[in-house]
Write a structure and sequence with these properties.
Elements: H1 50-72, H2 74-90, H3 96-108, H4 113-129, H5 139-150, E1 163-168, H6 175-188, E2 193-198, H7 205-216, E3 219-221, H8 229-243, E4 247-252, H9 259-276, E5 282-289, H10 293-307, E6 311-315, H11 325-333, E7 337-341, E8 349-351, H12 354-362
Parallel strand pairs: 1-4, 1-5, 2-3, 2-4, 5-6, 6-7
Antiparallel strand pairs: 7-8
The protein binds guanosine-5'-triphosphate and magnesium ion.
Magnesium ion binds near residues 175, 199, 205 and 251.
Length: about 375
């Protein structure tokens, strides 16, 4: 073999289902955009009842969500599913060679050594306990164990009061884009959103956030380029409190003159947000680029040591065949993945759902 992920991915399909959770029709509208009649008949002979229509709409939304996930994970799926098929076909009996192949396959998929060992141990244990000798019977169990290894998905605080989201990460990982997507998601969830442009270091960073804000129709609190980011955060937090904002999302620099400078600056920003927020939780969301593999995990450790990260947004999953990195992140960092990025568009951010993720990766 021995490479699960050695095939060239095809061009990503940019066509996405618009009748999704993100493009959700307004209340009182059907998925096709027509107004529902308040006097719609209820009986089976007269068409679906309101409840049936609601269930239908929920199913459509789920299909849209899953369809986009499958599309976003296509590179990983093509490799993962093809190699699972190949290994299981090549080794119909559960023997040592089968275990070696599965183990190597998971490691190649960037699942990480520790997580792979745990998954393999759990699989072996179940195979022995349930006297399974046909490898095909283990596919469902492999999925179960991967879901288990992904742990509980993280859910950021989403209460009625202000939450400050401090979005941090190495430069280029997708912070600003993720902030735009998050703002879009939170707006769709009915939350009032404000952005804070605290990356005052990189040229054009403020303008980039501004462009997104205009498209999203949200306000940005910003200062001049080169100004003190902590002062931006101070103003942004006070503006958020004064305006009854629920989600204040703060963009930060990914690079300064030195790494130590960056961490000191981020710590200061966090302190200011905590001090000025009037008790508002400050949720530190670390953005990791999935295409950077184990290197991304090493970076995450450093950020976590300095800032106590609460959750992870794993971006660019559409750009890698090694989606298994999600499992390694959970195993090695113990920080929950809250969101995944599966494309460059505003709609391409999803709340992380381990079951759907594994199904999209190896579902058949
Ligand atoms: N394919 C893909 N591209 C993404 C995703 N998220 C972000 N990007 C792209 O990654 C590039 C960098 O994104 P930014 O949001 O500017 O990254 P950043 O972390 O803010 O970068 P700095 O401000 O330089 O620190 C852009 O071209 C984005 O379109 C994703 O989920 N999928
Ligand atoms: Mg940025």
């Amino acid at each position: 073999m021995r490479n699960w992920f050695n095939r060239q991915p095809q061009e990503s399909n940019k066509e996405h289902d618009r009748s999704s959770a993100f493009g959700r029709p307004e209340e009182g509208e059907t998925a096709s955009g027509q107004k529902e009649s308040g006097t719609a008949p209820d009986g089976p002979e007269d068409g679906p009842s309101a409840e049936e229509r609601r269930a239908e709409r929920a199913a459509e939304e789920r299909a849209g969500f899953f369809g986009r996930l499958v599309d976003g994970l296509r590179r990983s799926r093509e490799n993962f599913a093809a190699n699972v098929d190949r290994i299981f076909a090549l080794h119909p009996k559960v023997d040592e060679e089968f275990w070696t192949e599965v183990e190597e396959g998971l490691i190649q998929a960037d699942v990480g050594v520790e997580a792979t060992m745990r998954v393999i141990d759990a699989l072996r244990e179940r195979a022995e306990r349930e006297l399974i000798s046909e490898s095909s019977e283990l596919i469902g169990i492999l999925k179960d164990e991967l879901v288990r290894a992904l742990g509980e998905p993280g859910r950021p605080p989403m209460g009625e009061e202000l939450v400050v989201y401090l979005v941090v990460g190495v430069n280029g990982t997708g912070k600003t884009t993720t902030i735009a997507k998050l703002a879009n998601l939170h707006k769709l969830q009915g939350r009032k959103v404000l952005l804070g442009a605290a990356d005052t270091f990189r040229a054009a960073a403020i303008e980039q956030l501004d462009v997104w804000a205009e498209r999203l129709d949200v306000v940005v609190v910003k200062h001049e380029r080169g100004s003190d980011p902590a002062a931006v955060v101070y103003d942004a937090v006070h503006a958020a409190r004064a305006r009854g904002v629920r989600s204040l999302i703060i963009d930060t620099a990914g690079r300064l003159h030195t790494y130590v400078n960056l961490m000191e600056e981020l710590k200061k920003i966090k302190r200011i947000a905590q001090r000025e927020g009037g008790g508002a939780p400050v949720h530190t969301l670390l953005v990791i680029d999935a295409t950077t593999g184990q290197n991304g995990i090493a970076q995450a450790r450093l950020f976590n040591e300095a800032l106590e990260v609460n959750g992870i947004a794993l971006t660019k999953l559409d750009g890698t065949a090694k989606g298994g990195i999600a499992v390694a992140i959970e195993e090695e960092l113990g920080i929950p993945i809250e969101y995944i990025g599966i494309g460059e568009r505003m709609e391409d951010l999803q709340e992380f759902n381990p079951t759907a993720f594994v199904e999209a990766l190896i579902g058949r």
